[in-house]
Amino acid sequence: MELSVGTAGTGVRRRGGQSHLGEDGGWRLRGELSGLHAGSSCGLVLNLRLLSITHTLTPSHPRSHQWAELVQDPRWSWDSLLPYFKKSETWFPSTELTRQGLLTRDAHGFDGPIKVSHVTNSGRPRNYPLREKIRQFHELLGCQHAVDINAGQPEGYAEGFNSTYEGRRSYAAGYVLGANVTLWSRSWVEKVVVEGGNAQGVIVTRSGEDGKPARVYVEATKEVILSAGAQSSPKILLLSGIGPAADLALHQINPIVDLPVGRNYTDHAGIFTYWAIDLPNAVLGDGEMQGPDLDWTAGLPYDWISFAPADGSTRELARQLLPPDKYRRYSAAGKLQIEVFIVYTSVDTCTRTPPPAPGWPGRGVFTIAHILVDPVSRGTVTLQSTDPADPPILDPQLLASPVDRSALYECVRDCARAVQAVEGLNAVEWGVEDALRGDWSDEAIERRTSRMGAGTVFHPSGTCSMGEVVDSECRVFWVERLRVVDAGVIPLPLAAHYQAPIYGIAEQAAEMIVRGL
Ligand SMILES: Cc1cc2nc3c(=O)[nH]c(=O)nc-3n(C[C@H](O)[C@H](O)[C@H](O)COP(=O)(O)OP(=O)(O)OC[C@H]3O[C@@H](n4cnc5c(N)ncnc54)[C@H](O)[C@@H]3O)c2cc1C
C-alpha cells in the first residue's frame, strides 16, 4: 500500500451531465478511464491502484465450470486454472487457520512471485480495533464464516487477504522477464497490420529521447499478442478493421472481419456508504499510523470480506426477466452476486468531481463497499474517432438492468440495517443530509449514488469475449497469427477481483502459445 500526500487523482472524463443515472435509471459512464478519484483520509490520498483489495483466486462460484461450459473447453474451469493461480503465489496463511489446523494448502502456491498474505499474517501487526465488531456485521448480514474463500468456495465471510506482505505490494512487474524479452516503454500500439487474413505486425508510436514521437512498423515473426486490457485491446482491433461491421462503417475503416469486438463489456458496479462511529482511534487517520500492535501501513485497512448470492426477490426478478440460459447461470447453486467489505477509512472510487461533501473525509469514518460481482447488464467499447490518440468511448451500462439494480440496492439496505445493529458501534451514516439518512428506498439510494460513493471498482472485462471474438486458445477468429490475452477475453463476470484471474489467463495462454511453436 502506498500513501501519498497530494490531491486526489483525475476522475473519469465523462460526457454529459454529472449524474451516474441514465434516463432508464441505469448508470452511465462514458469516456476515458484516466484514473480514479480516490478517497482521502486526513490529507492522505489512498492510491487504490496500489491497494490490492484481494488477490482473489476464485473465478465465480465453487469449482465453477460456467466459463468452461460456455466455450466448451475444460481448460477454463476453476480446477484447470488452479495450477496457474498457484504458480503465481507465495501464500502467507491466516494465523487463525493455522492454529485451528484448517489450512487449505492444496489450493495455494508457496514459491510464486506474488506474496499473498492474510490480515493476521502479513508481516506487520494489524490488530485493527474493530475486528470483532465488523465480524459481527458480516454475521448480521447472514453470512457464515468460511474457512478460505480463495479455495474454490467463496460464499460466506472470511479473513481478508491481499497481495501485500510487510507493507509492500506484489504485482506483475515483479515477474522476472526472460533474457529474450525486449521491453519498450513510452510506446503505443496504434493498430495491427493484417494482410491476406494474417496478422503481419503492429504500428507503434514511440516517444524518442528528444520527446518527439516516431511511428514504427514492427513485424511479427510468429504472431501478434495483444494485451492492452479490456478497454484498449478492442480499440486497437477496431482501428485494425476487426469489429462490428456497422462500427467500422461509421468510421470508414476498411473492414477485415465482422466480429462483436467491444460488445459484452461488463464491470463490477460498486456503491460506497460512509459511517461515522464514536469510538476513538478505531480507524485509519485517527491516532498513530504505526505502533507496536497496530501498523496501518501493513496492508489494506480491513479485516473481513464476504460474498453472497443475490436476495430472493432479485432472483425472482431474474427468473422473470432473463432468458432461460442466462437465468440458469445466474441461479446455479453457489453462484454469487454480492461482495461486501468494510475499509477502515473513507474510500471512493466514484468518478465525479469535485469531491462531494464538505469536510471530506471526516475523522472516525469507515466505508462499506457494496459490490455487484455478477452483473447481467452489458455495455460497449466503441471508437470515438480513427485517431489512435483518442480514448475509446466506454459505456459499461452499469446497473442498466433492473435485476442488477435490485441486487445491489437490496445489498445496500441489508448492510445499512446490519451496521446499525452492531453492538457498541453506534454507526451513523455520514455525508448525507438528515432528510436522506434513514431513507433506504431505491430513489434515496440513487440520490446518494448521484452525489457520492458510486461507480465501478475497475474490473472491466468481456470486450474480446472468448467464444465470440477469440477461440479458447485466445486466437482471434478468422485472423491468423493474432491473439488477445487480457481481461477482455473473460466471457462472463467473475466473483473475483481480476488481478489473479488475469495471471491465470496469462500463464495458461503462455503455455498454449509455447505448445504451438
Ligand atoms: C484503479 C484500479 C484498482 C484495481 N484494484 C484491484 C485490486 O485491488 N485487486 C485486483 O485483483 N484487481 C484490481 N484491479 C483490476 C486489475 O488491475 C485489472 O483487472 C488487471 O490489471 C487487468 O489486466 P489486463 O492485463 O487485462 O490489463 P492491464 O493491467 O490494464 O494491462 C494493459 C496494459 O496495456 C497497456 N496499453 C494499453 N493500450 C496500449 C496501447 N495502445 N499500446 C501499448 N500498450 C497499451 C497499458 O498501459 C497497460 O500496461 C484494479 C484496477 C484498477 C484500474
Can you walk me through this structure?
The structure is a single chain. The chain has 517 residues and is α+β, with helices and mostly antiparallel strands. The chain folds into 2 domains: 3-16 and 129-169 and 266-456, Glucose Oxidase, domain 3 (2-Layer Sandwich); 185-264 and 461-496, FAD/NAD(P)-binding domain (3-Layer(bba) Sandwich). Helices cover 22% and strands 20% of the residues. The protein has 11 helices and 26 strands. The chain has helices at residues 66-71, 78-88, 95-99, 131-140, 229-239, 245-250, 312-321, 324-330, 402-421, 442-451, 499-515; strands at 3-5, 13-14, 31-32, 40-41, 44-46, 89-92, 114-118, 156-159, 161-162, 164-165, 168-169, 187-195, 198-207, 213-219, 224-226, 242-243, 257-258, 269-276, 304-308, 338-343, 365-372, 380-382, 393-395, 428-429, 454-456, 482-484. The strands form 9 sheets. Strands 8, 18, 19, 20, 21, 24 and 25 form a 7-stranded antiparallel β-sheet that branches. A 3-stranded antiparallel β-sheet has the order 1-5-4, with no helix packed on it. Helix 4 (131-140) packs across helix 9 and helix 7 (312-321) packs antiparallel against helix 9. The longest helix is centred in the C-terminal third of the chain and has 20 residues, at 402-421. The protein is globular. It binds flavin-adenine dinucleotide (FAD). The site of flavin-adenine dinucleotide has 24 residues, from strand 12, helix 5 and helix 11. Belongs to the GMC oxidoreductase family. This is Glucose dehydrogenase. It comes from Aspergillus saccharolyticus JOP 1030-1.
